[in-house]
């Protein structure tokens, strides 16, 4: 007995209309390649198999009006509809909404939940809200938070809101992001700027690691002390002036003050001590 092979597409050429300018290439492909697993989409992006205007692009490339996207042949999944998500996760994220109107959702994302699926994660915040708000056809993440970071996350329900907020975040910095982090040791200054170039590396496992490297992109984070706990720990406010992947986490480590509970760049001994004192993560 044999089972039929999953259907395979040919090369696809997708034109980008003006209303999609500013959208990330991964979200563009996820919305258009129905039946293609997200893991496959992220893989062809990482390998450089997706071309825009005949040139290679990075996975975080933002589309421009008039771009032509070339997608290689893909083996599609047999089922187009996503599997229903766990009811408990849906209820948890619904309860985490702090603001919603016709164009925008603001959710207090818990730690431990990814913002999107891929790289071993079946579903994240955006998949949850696409299921919770099926009538919002253009629902997209405005920005991102690391899986182990909690905090306010904006989700646009309309393309016009997505463009407006992208301009507010990237242009004149009408909106900025500030994070609180508990770091190891006694942060020496009340305020300190950490400027160190960051280079992204993708491991064979698909995991992304970032390091301080002279060949990386310029990155600047402003840290301000909020509270000290002797020489053991310091609560700081971190304001990323640039927006590099894992920027705050890597800059804190580079400054000699790893963030508590950070499984990738943190100090396990410090994190264990925090857990023993009652820290949740």
From TrEMBL:
EC number: 5.4.99.-
SUPFAM superfamilies: Alpha-L RNA-binding motif, Pseudouridine synthase
Record domain RNA-binding S4: where: 23-82
Keywords in alphabetical order: Isomerase, RNA-binding, rRNA processing
GO molecular function, one term: RNA binding
Role summary: Responsible for synthesis of pseudouridine from uracil at positions 955, 2504 and 2580 in 23S ribosomal RNA.
Alphabetical list of InterPro entries matching this protein: PsdUridine_synth_cat_dom_sf, PsdUridine_synth_RluA-like_CS, PsdUridine_synth_RluC/D, PsdUridine_synth_RsuA/RluA, RluA_PseudoU_synthase, S4_RNA-bd, S4_RNA-bd_sf
Catalytic reaction(s) noted: uridine(955/2504/2580) in 23S rRNA = pseudouridine(955/2504/2580) in 23S rRNA; a uridine in RNA = a pseudouridine in RNA
Domain of life: Bacteria
Annotated source species: Pseudomonas aeruginosa
Enzymatic class: isomerase
Gene3D superfamilies in the cross-refs: Pseudouridine synthase, RNA-binding S4 domain
BP GO terms, sorted: enzyme-directed rRNA pseudouridine synthesis
A Pfam family assignment: S4
Family: Belongs to the pseudouridine synthase RluA family.
Active-site residues (renumbered): 146
Protein known as: Pseudouridine synthase
